[in-house]
Amino acid sequence: MNLEDTHLDVLIKAQKAQGITDRDLIKMAGITVPDLNNLRAGRREPTALERVARTLGLRSESVIALANSNWSAPAVALPATVLKFTTPFADMTVNHYLVWDPKSLKAVAFDAGTDADPFFAALDRHKLTLEKILLTHSHGDHVLELDRIREKTKAEAFAPEAEPVEGCQPVPNAKRFKVGALTITAHTVPGHSVGGTVYEVKGLEAPLAVVGDVLFAGSVGGIRSRYRSALEAIRAGVFSLPPETILLPGHGPVTTVSHELAHNPFFP
Ligand SMILES: [Fe+2]
Fold first, then answer.
1. Would you tell me which of 131, 250, 259, 268 could form a disulfide with 213, CB atoms 3.0–4.6 Å apart?
2. Distance, CA 28 to ligand 1 centroid (Å)?
3. Distance from the alpha carbon of residue 42 to the mean position of ligand 1, in angstroms
4. For the whole model, what pTM was predicted?
5. CB–CB of 137/160 below 8 Å?
6. Do residues 49 and 41 lie in contact, with contact meaning Cβ atoms separated by under 8 Å?
7. CATH number 3.40.50.620 is the correct assignment for the domain at 82-263
8. What homologous superfamily is domain 7-67 in, according to CATH?
9. What are the residue boundaries of the structural domains of the chain, listed by start?
């Protein structure tokens, strides 16, 4: 699966989130208007790229690696009781997940995606009982199929406390859930959205965390609040998890804490 963001997406996200104008960026980076225009047109001139990346506080070697397609998500084997569904949304796709306890066959859904038919088929195929639906945030692409999943499964639904969703119970920071032998802990990580929630799952053969749009392999979901504190929240809420933790993002491929710590351009 391709990474969610190109190097240009990363540069634009970092610039926009810090409120830096193009004129200021040119001055701060010591480049010319043609340099910037060439970068935006996709030319990968390493000096200008490095200067812009550094000016934006990004890890320049990662931005250059992304530009040269020398970076990819790690090969991660998901535990056998974790399924990823990638559903279409306009010109992009969105991920949602199904995780279950292999003994009790009790299951939990993370987000709802835009087409739940493959999800319903998996519930049937594995003879699962869906107990809970946990939303990472309330953006439309993540909740489109919520009502249909709730109606069909009668599972309890939960949404971040700061992002109320009709029919969902609130999830404050540090709330814990039990689903069979699985323990799930919510970590509120505001930035992309006010209540963005990471769900840490323990009890599977490998630790994992569903991160929604808080973090992508090689990028972050667009940050809409104070930039520095949003990055700090990601460090506290995601990078403090054990390095082998598998990260399940709302868009793009699966990754790990250690891989993002070593490569993510937003965390030099
Ligand atoms: Fe989002």
1. 250
2. 30
3. 26
4. 0.96
5. yes
6. no
7. no
8. lambda repressor-like DNA-binding domains (1.10.260.40)
9. 7-67, 82-263
